[in-house]
Amino acid sequence: MTRFSPSPVTAVLGPTNTGKTHLAIERMCAHSSGLIGFPLRLLAREVYDRVVKIKGPHEVALVTGEERIVPPGARWFLSTAESMPLDKGRDFAFVAIDEAQLGAHPERGHVFTDRVLNARGRDETMILGSEAMAPMIRALVPDAEIIGRPRFSTLSYAGIKKLSRLPPRSAIVAFSAEEVYAVAEMLRRFRGGAAVVMGALSPATRNAQVAMYQAGEVDYLVATDAIGMGLNMDVEHVAFASLHKYDGARRRRLTLAEMAQIAGRAGRHQRDGTFGSVAGHHDAQFTDEEIERIEQHSFPPLKSLFWRESRLRFDSLGTLIADLERLPSSPVLKPAPEAIDLAVLRRLADDSQVATSVRGTAAVRRFWSVCSLPDFQHRGAEHHANFVAQLWQHLGQGLGHIPVDFIARKIADLDSVQGDVEKLGARIAAIRTWAYVAQRRDWLADPAEMAGRAREVEERLSDALHRALAQRFVDRRTAVLLRGLGGDASLLPVTLEEGDAICVDGEPIGHLNGFAFVVDAQARLADRKLLVAAADRHLPGLLARRARDLIADGPKALAIGADDKGRPAMFWRGQRIG
């Protein structure tokens, strides 16, 4: 089941914020070539950008399902675990797999287990993961040296807090897009807004949202559990809006390891962090045992990993299915639940019209590659099987490639930046499908052209989604009022600008009408108290300056007339002052 490799294997295990990924990057860059597999496209992209700064853009490659940046002669590769180029005849001096404990994940676990068993570097191999992986490493890779790494900083429980009372630089974690949006909307009302990070976002949208948070434009980040997979942000407190998630089969409570992985994002390097719950969410409360275990980084060891045969035979569809159904021989491995690629394969193998078109080793191999297309839109096996069958009509029964006009039309149909956050998110999920298809050079007559088009559409959609998220979930004026002041808005800089506008830190909050302060009519009622407090401390100085201007103008500058209600009034510079 494992492939013999004479090179040393090191398992670097420990909680979050131990520098495991940083160590792997250093080791890879010290070799003549290298490959690291990550759990997220976002994380692969983040590390790719870091390595490019070290080695230069012509030496570094990024390989994910939807994105390929592979310069000729590239020697250092950053990839998602599923897309690691291990079967392309490449020979890497260094190979690492990150977050190896995901071998216990029901949906993707078999991929990570296969990498732990079979991904090897010529000179050095590194397995990164949680301490809970130690028994699995001993059982499956007995020759590996296990090195434990302590956390750089302290992680402590900070209790249950109202959303409106969360400290600045907090990340609030929820487990569905609906929950994320609901929390972000409340933060907009209470604290001026939040950045949003979800695994379904494109790298461009995610980076724009994080940049907004990192720059201090907002002090809060709302995220799914994607935040737990090593994404680096300056988070001081992690608050759980829920401790339950839907895992594709059922709604369940997070495992202790999952809680710790997410909570551990609080604090960075040697800066301590805290975690806790959001008040009012009954399913977000930790038990005393969970708190103690998370603070002490003490988690139950994994007893098994999911496995699926990766050395497949392509003699026929029946042989391929039999290989994918094969049971593991090791007692610590258990068969993976049916993934969507196998579910699609079964459905289409039962379709006589499709099955008769899949004859011979080359056709079976190609058909399996089409069945392996990820279901980015999460529409389920039946819908996805229909889509795969449509692609196979072109690839296996037609000209052998997807017609240019067909894929160009599909990409063009998604090239619209109109709509709300949900519609833009759905289009991004759809364009990810065509970006994946366009990366398959054996599927398209002109892959470079179509990949470029898909990338441009995704970039436009990403920019639009970032703007939509900021518009929906960020009230910059309220954020300015509260930023860094602990709620004491009276300390903010207030200026009188052209047109008698009064601005707080550059944001208009109202105007002077004569000697009266008028709050901006666009301000929500919840903001008015803050706006008045911000202006109140500074108004005496502004009004004194205005009084000096009135005295300087003299009596001739005054006019007597009637106001808009016909009452006698005195005017100065066109404004009623008495």
Can you put this structure into words, describing what you see?
- This protein folds into four domains: 9-148, P-loop containing nucleotide triphosphate hydrolases (Rossmann fold), CATH 3.40.50; 155-303, 3-Layer(aba) Sandwich (Rossmann fold), CATH 3.40.50.300; 338-472, no CATH class; 488-576, no CATH class.
- The protein has 19 helices and 25 strands.
- The protein is 39% helix and 18% strand.
- It has 578 residues and is of the alpha/beta class.
- The strands form six sheets. Strands 4-3-5-2-6-7-1-8 form an eight-stranded mixed sheet, with helices on both faces. A six-stranded parallel sheet has the order 9-16-13-10-12-11, with helices on both faces. A four-stranded antiparallel sheet has the order 19-20-21-22.
- A hairpin with a 4-residue loop joins strand 3 and strand 4 (68-69).
- Helix 7 (256-263) packs across helix 8 (288-296), helix 9 runs antiparallel to helix 10 (340-349) and helix 15 packs antiparallel against helix 16.
- The protein is globular, with a radius of gyration of 29 Å.
- The model is unreliable at 1-5 and 484-489 (pLDDT under 50).
Counting copies of identical and different chains, the oligomeric state is single chain
> Termini distance?
91 Å
The gyration radius over C-alpha positions equals 29 Å
Helix/strand/pairing class, anyone? Answer: alpha/beta
Helix content: 25-40%
Q: How are the strands of the largest sheet arranged?
A: 4-3-5-2-6-7-1-8
- CATH topology of the largest domain, which one? Rossmann fold
Can you tell me the CATH superfamily of the largest domain? Answer: P-loop containing nucleotide triphosphate hydrolases
Report the total helices.
19
Strand content: 15-25%
Number of domains: 4
Low-confidence stretches: 1-5, 484-489
Q: Summarize the main sheet.
A: 8 strands, mixed
- The geometry reads as globular
* Mean pLDDT score: 86
Q: How many β-strands, per DSSP?
A: 25
Proper CATH architecture of the largest domain: 3-Layer(aba) Sandwich
The CATH C-level class name of the largest domain: Alpha Beta
